[in-house]
Amino acid sequence: MNRQLSRTDNLIHQFDTVLRTLVPHAAQASRPSPATPEVRDEPMDDEERRHAAGLMRINHTGEVCAQALYQGQGLTAKLPEVRGQMEEAASEEIDHLAWCDERLRELGDRPSLLNPLFYAASFGIGAAAGAVGDRVSLGFVAATEEQVGRHLEEHLVRLPAGDHRSRAVLRQMAIDEAHHAQLALEAGGARFPAPVKFGMKLMSKVMTGSVYRV
């Protein structure tokens, strides 16, 4: 029989998630990185390496935001099955977080110093969406994942030609994000109108523009 978690248990779990998300190298992937030892980079100069690191830093911060978003939504979701779906999606996103962190280390760089700020903002947005209703919350997941997918496709084009390891990671992330978006819609998520998606796009530009170097 499964033990019912107490409020204290849940608080400890939430705090553990925050630490695993924000502390560098703390996230542990459940799946091996798509950048297997067989995937090898071609030589890159310093400028190309810095550019690749900047793009992977953006993707890492995007996964920090995803963790916070799912955690906030799971906290306020009305239906247990929706709460469970949020937790499952967040668990899968941990893989992405760990893969991006690992790739940043390989490139000799670090995660964004702004991650705690974006985590707090995303948690608040997720909690607010969950409080409005599960249909809106799931719709927000779908719209967010669709937007992330577009970023990943753009980054696959912008990466240096010789950066095969980052490209392998982003390809798998794109597959996973598309799956999460589809699951959210199938679970009853609302399809957001174009003006709402445009506003989300503007907020995303603030994030990508700030963490590329910081």
TrEMBL record:
Could you say which residues bind Fe cation 1 here?
E63, E93, H96, E177
Q: Which reactions are catalysed by this chain? A: a 5-methoxy-2-methyl-3-(all-trans-polyprenyl)benzene-1,4-diol + AH2 + O2 = a 3-demethylubiquinol + A + H2O
Mode of membrane association: Peripheral membrane protein
In what pathway does it function? Cofactor biosynthesis; ubiquinone biosynthesis
What are the recorded GO MF terms, alphabetically? Answer: monooxygenase activity
Instruction: From the Swiss-Prot or TrEMBL record, state where the protein is found.
Output: Cell membrane
Keywords attached to this Swiss-Prot or TrEMBL record, sorted alphabetically, are: Cell membrane, Iron, Membrane, Metal-binding, Monooxygenase, Oxidoreductase, Ubiquinone biosynthesis
How many cofactor units bind, and how? Binds 2 iron ions per subunit.
What the entry lists under PANTHER family is as follows: 5-DEMETHOXYUBIQUINONE HYDROXYLASE, MITOCHONDRIAL, COENZYME Q10 BIOSYNTHESIS PROTEIN 7
Protein name in the entry:
3-demethoxyubiquinol 3-hydroxylase
Species this chain originates from: Halomonas mongoliensis
Name of encoding gene = coq7
